[in-house]
Amino acid sequence: MWSNFRNRQDYFLIVPILFTVLVLPQGINRKDLTQEAPNPLQHKKFHADSSCDGTADSRATTAIACPAATYPFVLSLLSVEPTEISIGGDATISLRLTNVGHDPASVPWTTDPDLIELPDENDSYEYLEADLTTILVPANGSAYFRIPVRLYGAKQVEGSLQQINPGESVDITIKLVLDCKSEDLHCRFLSPGATKLSITWSEYKRGAVYQKCRIDYSSTRLRELLSNAANVVIVRGNGSPH
């Protein structure tokens, strides 16, 4: 009888330990863009033929799906610090991108555009690009501030795409700078007071073909996500337009 009682004690001691192990949260990959410099793709490998007269003759083709796809992601705004932002000042914004669908999906994940500029034997290449834009909605309109750091990716470049499986998330931290001048169109509707702040994630499939004297561009918007809104307060600062 003493032996049976000990066995029951062991059983009840072991079960809580196993349960604790099973509910440990999975790690979340994080990308901090707050210290990154602006990183547009500069087409460093394009060299115009010596016979060209030096004038630019680039051509562009753009396709935009309407409405834009969102599947399988949801973009969540986690925090804004500080919540009182001065015009001419900055704020740090934390975001979470979650796969709420049933299929794995990948997003651009490198900040180095030189890695994905890989022209093939036809001097062409394709890549993915994600842009982030802050939307501020005060009482008298909307102001848009594009985050100057972009994310890039290409299938042939290892590590440049981040796969997010169903139920998993990645976190992204960005810096918003309210750099306003009196002539800036995007600042005309930015006024002191209570404001709603949200973020858009715009994802594109882009391509480039290096011709003899020009670059032909193509761009297709694949996905656009809008985050939830946060309440912030805009105050006048040294960078305020007069």
Give a written overview of the molecule.
This protein has one helix at residues 2-22, and strands spanning 29-32, 59-64, 73-81, 84-86, 90-99, 105-108, 124-137, 143-146, 151-153, 161-164, 169-177, 193-210, 215-226, 230-235. It is globular and about 55 Å long. The longest helix is centred in the first third of the chain and has 21 residues, at 2-22. The strands form three sheets. Strands 2, 4, 7, 8, 9, 12, 13 and 14 form an eight-stranded mixed sheet that branches. Mean pLDDT is 85; it is low at 1-25. The protein is mainly beta and 242 residues long. The protein has one domain: Immunoglobulin-like (Sandwich).
Feature tags:
single chain; 242 residues; mainly beta; Immunoglobulin-like; 8-stranded mixed sheet; 4-stranded mixed sheet; globular; disordered N terminus
